[in-house]
């Protein structure tokens, strides 16, 4: 389970603020998640998410003392970017990044919970579809939704996907799911905290691509 | 017609060698071509092609004197990369880049030649499909081919596409097509020269993605 075990998110402090430096360090390993989906064309999604991370990192590195937490970034940009905000800068990049993270979170949670299509128990389409519907679908126009439906057919088998997440380590399925559950604790809390922050700061947009 | 008019490829010398520096300068404007297709999701393709260009540029900048022409790059890498070659380095990046360029070339040529679906004269699906079949299809597995078929429905109207290529300049359609034809002369010669080079140096691969 090395991909997830080696890159655990830290526990949040009582005020649920997310430390920018730690967040960026941990999250930068996550795009390899999309390699576990098998087909190399998913690397296009990986690039999109990597682009989000790079954008946030660039803003952070301009003034690490000013941007200690993610909330500092949003608040500074709200001041600096004027009418463009929140559809600009690291605020926009994190807005989309959090949706990709939510997609991953729901997919893994659904697997950990043992949700399955009983007719096709070794497929993960039902888990991917659930994650897509809750995290992304409403932000996608008909064209991207259609692409998603096509992409669904290239999704890997459940067993292969779990194996890929373990990066070849020969762990039993139950152990794999146990690792998933451990990973999800702080990961879900972090993603929730980012969503709460966007709601609180009125930084969420619902335009479609 | 500014996108194409402002970024004309140069005439090739008698030996058909392609100057690396000039090629990179001119080709780096072409990915904006994919913005003319309308939907923003085509920016994923743009990133793939930009990635190819960046890779070639990185190799070139390491030793501009060694890599004066594209052929110098392939020959040097053939020596340096051993068994990995040609599926590595700038050789691989240019192998894919040339296919994207061929796609653009055939699509524009087909428009310039007035090829149309008489039942749907303002659609360019027939032109895009021709370009795809000749330039890319054989290198794509069933999954990417399926994505292509879906993407086809997001293709812009002919009139809008020609307008986008002109970047808002208010040119008549006939003038637009005339500009296309001018652009295509050196562009097609350059793409042909790169294909010839790959054949000559035995650098072409036909694996699918
Ligand atoms: C030869 C054939 C060619 C045909 C080509 C067709 C092209 C195919 C296109 C497929 C769409 C892929 C999904 C990517 C969509 C992206 O467009 C969106 C928005 O992307 C955001 O856009 C913003 C501006 O509005 C900024 O630029 C953000 O950038 S910024 O950093 O600059 O601010 C950027 O991330 N991201 C998303 O929707 C996020 C997607 C997350 C992951 C989704 C997981 C799904 C997994 C499914 C598994 C079964
Ligand atoms: C939410 C839903 C999410 C679902 C996501 C699904 C993902 C969608 C994927 C769509 C595929 C897009 C096409 C891109 C395919 C690319 O995979 C290929 C090969 O790409 C090459 O691969 C090499 C290794 O084999 C190196 O990495 C090259 O990189 S290297 O530089 O490192 O060496 C790289 O370019 N390029 C291509 O096939 C080139 C494509 C050229 C342009 C095609 C124009 C078509 C226009 C159609 C208009 C109607």
Automatic annotation (TrEMBL), chains A, B:
Location of the protein in the cell: Cytoplasm
UniProt entry keywords in alphabetical sequence: Cytoplasm, Lipid transport, Repeat, Transport
Any one GO molecular function term: ceramide 1-phosphate transfer activity
Pfam families according to UniProt: GLTP
Location, primary (coarse class): cytoplasm
Ranges where the Glycolipid transfer protein domain occurs: 18-166
The keyword Transport is assigned to this record: yes
Membrane-spanning ranges: none
GO cellular component term, pick one: cytosol
Protein origin, superkingdom: Eukaryota
Family: Belongs to the GLTP family.
Described function: Accelerates the intermembrane transfer of various glycolipids. Catalyzes the transfer of various glycosphingolipids between membranes but does not catalyze the transfer of phospholipids. May be involved in the intracellular translocation of glucosylceramides.
Protein's name according to its UniProt entry: Glycolipid transfer protein b
Organism: Hippocampus comes (Tiger tail seahorse)
């Amino acid at each position: 389970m090395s991909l997830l075990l080696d890159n655990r998110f830290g526990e949040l402090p009582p005020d649920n603020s997310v430390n920018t430096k730690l967040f960026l360090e941990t999250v930068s390993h996550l795009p390899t998640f999309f390699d576990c989906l098998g087909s190399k064309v998913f690397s296009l999604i990986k690039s999109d998410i990597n682009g989000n991370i790079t954008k946030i990192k660039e803003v952070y590195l301009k003034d690490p003392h000013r941007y200690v937490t993610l909330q500092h970034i949003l608040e500074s940009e709200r001041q600096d970017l004027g009418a463009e905000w929140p559809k600009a800068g690291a605020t926009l990049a994190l807005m989309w990044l959090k949706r990709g993270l939510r997609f991953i979170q729901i997919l893994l949670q659904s697997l950990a919970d043992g949700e399955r299509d009983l007719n096709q128990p070794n497929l993960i389409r039902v888990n991917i579809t659930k994650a897509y519907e809750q995290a992304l679908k409403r932000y996608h126009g008909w064209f991207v939704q259609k692409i998603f439906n096509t992409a669904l057919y290239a999704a890997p088998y459940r067993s292969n996907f779990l194996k890929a997440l373990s990066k070849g380590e020969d762990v039993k399925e139950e152990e794999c799911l146990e690792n998933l559950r451990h990973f999800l604790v702080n990961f879900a809390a972090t993603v929730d905290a980012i969503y709460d922050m966007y709601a609180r700061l009125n930084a969420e947009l619902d335009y479609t691509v």
